[in-house]
Write a structure and sequence with these properties.
398 residues, alpha/beta, eight-stranded mixed β-sheet, six-stranded mixed β-sheet, 13 helices, 21 strands
Length: 398
């Protein structure tokens, strides 16, 4: 039996920050779209992910009416500190460049964006779709087909454009022939044990612990919950890190003179993230445009992933709206425009990784140069300002 066919302007595959930002802006701009998501709504609204948002991203969402709850609920962080060699060193980017981070976990942002698109605007979003396939991407009449989980029927959506926002393992990137893209990849050769603790934050800012035993970090998520990271071997088993070992290592790696003891509590999340980056070039194949993790991944070393996804989505949305009005120049330049920011963030992630992991590398030369970078950044106003600009994120036209 042939699948039933409907038509829209844009099919958005994936309901993460990139796909939902794109869908909201397109609908507000008068461009019809359909969002397809493999998981159910409850799952995507609870999926643990990033929490730091750069100020430009928040202001861009605010300008488009998508940040009301964010601005009501998000905390802001204006400082962070490095702890190494038994001492603490505080950096205040807000004093240098006037910008701060917003702390707003990705599940909350996704919840807001789903509500804005589906509930407030009546946007078409289809959850739990199966066996998604992309068709005719190099033609002027692409289409996406899928199986309805409730009926088992196949549906086909004809469109002008497909937006692949479904991550590294999604069907969008897999639909691009290998000889039509280049994937640049960097593996750091280490992992981070990502932890969520039912414990109040022990500091009002981000804490980076640089220690011979391994990197450690503290990041507030809410008044009751704190995110921690511990460097570990790549591919490590979280079960190798029982409660007592986790807190012992955190106390060691975040130790410094004159700091209060860590607030300890029950660990409600424990998973190992293997540190690697990749970039897909170009971020376009025919009428398929990749955004977010489908096009690039930045390890959480510098908290850039969600911000890049939002930048891609806003860039693509504006270009598609302009294209619908007859100006296709921005759409033609989409990949190049996004990749300039992507590579800037990749370079910073690589540099920052050397700083954070040098002491634990086992290489005295790497350890020495990493500490020299730290001391220069902390002791020089110019170096501190340059670091703040990169860490807090580039300004954007959006």
């Amino acid at each position: 039996m042939s699948p039933s066919t409907t038509r829209t302007s844009v099919v958005v595959i994936g309901a993460g920050p990139a796909g939902l930002t794109l869908a909201n802006v397109l609908r507000s701009g008068g461009v019809d779209c359909v969002v397809l998501e493999a998981e159910n709504r409850e799952f995507i609204e609870q999926r643990p992910r990033a929490g730091f948002m750069e100020e430009w991203a928040v202001r861009a969402l605010q300008a488009r009416g998508l940040a009301d709850r964010l601005l009501q609920r998000a905390q802001t962080q204006e400082k962070f500190e490095f702890r190494f060699s038994g001492h603490r060193h505080t950096v205040r980017p807000v004093d240098r460049i006037g910008r701060r981070h917003f702390v707003y976990p990705q599940p909350l942002l996704v919840t807001d964006l789903v509500a804005a698109y589906a509930d407030a605007q009546g946007g078409d979003i289809r959850f739990g779709v199966q066996d998604v396939e992309l068709h005719g991407l190099e033609s002027e009449q692409p289409a996406v087909s899928y199986t309805d989980p409730a009926t088992g029927e196949r549906h086909r959506i004809a469109c002008a454009t497909v937006a692949g926002c479904d991550g590294a393992r999604g069907v969008s990137r897999a639909a691009v022939p290998e000889d039509r893209m280049t994937v640049a990849r960097h593996d750091y050769g280490l992992g981070w044990l990502a932890l969520l603790a039912e414990a109040p934050p022990s500091s009002d800012g981000v804490v980076f612990g640089v220690h011979p035993s391994g990197f450690g970090a503290h990041m507030a998520r809410s008044p009751e919950v704190t995110r921690y990271y511990l460097e570990c071997p790549a591919g490590d088993d979280p079960e190798n890190w029982p409660h007592e070992r986790v807190w012992s290592e955190l106390r060691t790696r975040l130790a410094a003179a004159d700091v209060p003891p860590l607030n300890e509590g029950r660990l409600i999340e424990k998973r190992v993230l293997d540190m690697h980056n990749y970039v897909v070039e170009p971020m376009r194949h025919g009428r398929l445009f990749l955004a977010g993790d489908a096009a690039h991944l930045v390890a959480p070393i510098a908290a850039k992933g969600m911000n890049l996804a939002i930048h891609d989505a806003l860039t693509l949305a504006d270009a598609l709206i302009a294209d619908a009005a007859g100006d296709g120049s921005a759409l033609d330049g989409y990949s190049d425009t996004c990749l300039r920011r992507v590579w800037q963030y990749q370079e910073f992630s690589l540099w920052f990784s050397d700083v954070l992991h040098g002491a634990s590398s086992g290489d005295p030369f790497r350890a020495g140069t990493a500490e020299a970078r730290l001391r220069r950044m902390l002791g020089s106003a110019a170096a501190s300002t340059a670091f703040a600009e990169l860490y807090m994120g580039e300004e954007s036209d959006h």
